Amino acid sequence: xxxxxxxEVILPGVTRIGGLGGELCYxxxxxxxxxxxxxxxxVGSLKAFVRELTDLPVELALTHGHVDHAGASFEYGAxxxxxxxVGLLYDHGDPQIRFGFVSNRPEGAFMPKFEDVVPPxxxxxxxxxxxDVIDLGGRKIEAIxxxxxxxxxxVFLDRDARVVFSGDACxxxxxxxxxxxxxxxxxxxxxxxxxxSFADAFDVLYGGHGPVAVxxxxxxxxxxxxxxxxxxxxxxxxxxxxxxxxxxAARFTGMFRREDGGLANIAYxxxxxxx
Length: 275
Known about the structure:
This protein is of the alpha+beta class. The protein has two domains: 1-128, 4-Layer Sandwich (Metallo-beta-lactamase, Chain A), CATH 3.60.15; 170-203 and 210-275, no CATH class. It has seven helices and 19 strands. It has helices spanning 46-51, 67-70, 73-76, 86-91, 95-102, 185-196, 218-230; strands spanning 6-11, 14-18, 24-29, 34-37, 58-61, 78-81, 124-127, 133-135, 140-145, 154-158, 163-167, 174-175, 204-207, 214-215, 237-241, 244-248, 252-253, 257-258, 266-268. A hairpin with an 8-residue loop joins strand 9 (140-145) and strand 10 (154-158). Helix 6 (185-196) runs antiparallel to helix 7 (218-230). The longest helix is centred in the last third of the chain and has 13 residues, at 218-230. 45% of the residues are buried. The model has no long low-confidence stretch (mean pLDDT 97).
């Protein structure tokens, strides 16, 4: 049993892996190779843990470059991601940032040491863009561009399993307040319309946080919120996320439960609504 990671088979050929900060990634296996979708924080050896789960050669692909999704890039030494997020990958590769993400642990829980952080290195970054298909042998994974949370955000569609591995692209706490890394609300709305055009091919989203699959109805829910923001008719609930002051489009209580019963929520900054 690992002190750093948990694992659970959630679908045939799909294992969900959890890290110390509650972040999630997914190991998807075909007949010829496996795809590791996202790489947690790079605290502890995810590469060694994955070797215990599959004998197949493993390729790493990232939904985006944030600290809690890209850490294993520095262990594998290579990954596939959208070119717009390469700079973010390195900006968040700082060991202090990655260690800080997992260091706020409950009392009595296992506490990693700074030495457990995989050191940064040069990473071979292979471009991955909207429409690209990764063939695992008997299983194809399709990349869909959903810029918003970051400018290079991708989601991964498995048509046979009727699921999308969505990272942080569209969830109950979608952050568009990540400074220069995020898009405007207006651009995010266009991304969601593109995402929604694939809705007939899947039923649920498996995201980068939270163990429960999210219904695809969250996408039109998020589009409606974007429309409210653009019209100036959203709730404008003040908050601070990732050190940035922001507004939430819909009021919520604990665990991001919307007061109006909706599912999606969006945190944004007023200066970056259009454009």
